[in-house]
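ARCHIVE CARD
CATEGORY: sequence design from structure
SOURCE FIELD: tokenized fold
FIELD CONTENT:
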């Protein structure tokens, strides 16, 4: 379920990442090519980006399908950025969270997205609530599995963990509590992109020394796209891409 994408590199118009490519995230909202779970990503979308000289990202999110919002097309035409994270949300059961449930989630310099689902939510993750303070639990962005996973990641980031460590420890912890969880996570601080492949597709396109794109699926048929093996941590910067295997949680 869901599709997401992140870019770091020279500043480009958002449309060059999100709309113009033949199979861009915009089209993936109604016609994904490699989505293994779900069919239509129409239950909200969001775009986050960084402006020069400001470490805090801006966001544009809406509760409906991206194809029904002409404002995002205009926005993507004129806004330029060297770091972008965007997502379209799979159609889900009805709820009252609306825009608040749409990625990217944000805090401080970070943007986050979750492509996947946690089987048995919320009961399956109830034991993990002890890792969060009452204030953190009351501050959840939405009553969804993705918002709770983000809270776990954010807790670790605020404790000083690096992006890769925060994602790795969260994925292993959640996978142990809910073994059938799909946990493709995407996180950026505006300088690098960190992601996990855990139960769904993840690809990257790298131009070493210049730019990197990390996405649920390729936005075109460029042969330089590489699929990330399942159970892998990816770290991408403008310089290079590093893949690290993730170990299964112990039985």
């Amino acid at each position: 379920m869901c599709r997401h994408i992140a870019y770091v590199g020279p500043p480009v118009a958002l449309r060059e990442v999100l709309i113009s490519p033949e199979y861009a995230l915009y089209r993936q909202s109604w016609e994904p090519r490699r989505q293994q779970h779900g069919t239509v990503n129409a239950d909200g979308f969001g775009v986050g980006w960084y402006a020069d000289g400001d470490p805090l990202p801006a966001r544009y999110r809406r509760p409906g399908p991206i194809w029904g919002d002409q404002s995002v097309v205009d926005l993507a035409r004129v806004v330029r950025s060297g770091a972008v994270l965007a997502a379209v949300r799979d159609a889900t059961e009805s709820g009252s969270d609306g825009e608040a449930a749409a990625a990217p989630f944000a805090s401080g310099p970070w943007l986050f997205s979750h492509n996947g689902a946690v089987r048995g939510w919320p009961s399956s993750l109830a034991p993990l609530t002890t890792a969060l303070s009452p204030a953190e639990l009351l501050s959840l962005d939405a009553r969804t599995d993705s918002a709770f996973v983000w809270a776990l990641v954010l807790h670790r980031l605020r404790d000083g963990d690096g992006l890769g460590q925060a994602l790795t420890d969260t994925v292993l912890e959640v996978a142990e509590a809910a073994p059938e969880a799909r946990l493709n996570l995407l996180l950026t601080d505006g300088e690098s992109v960190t992601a996990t492949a855990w139960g769904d597709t993840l690809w990257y396109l790298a131009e070493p020394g210049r730019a990197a794109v990390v996405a649920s699926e390729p936005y075109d048929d460029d042969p330089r796209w590489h699929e990330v093996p399942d159970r892998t941590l990816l770290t991408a910067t403008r310089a290079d891409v590093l893949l690290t295997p993730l170990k299964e949680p112990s039985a």
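CARD ANNOTATION: The mean pLDDT is 94. The first strand starts at residue 3 and ends at 13.
SHELF: design records, drawer C
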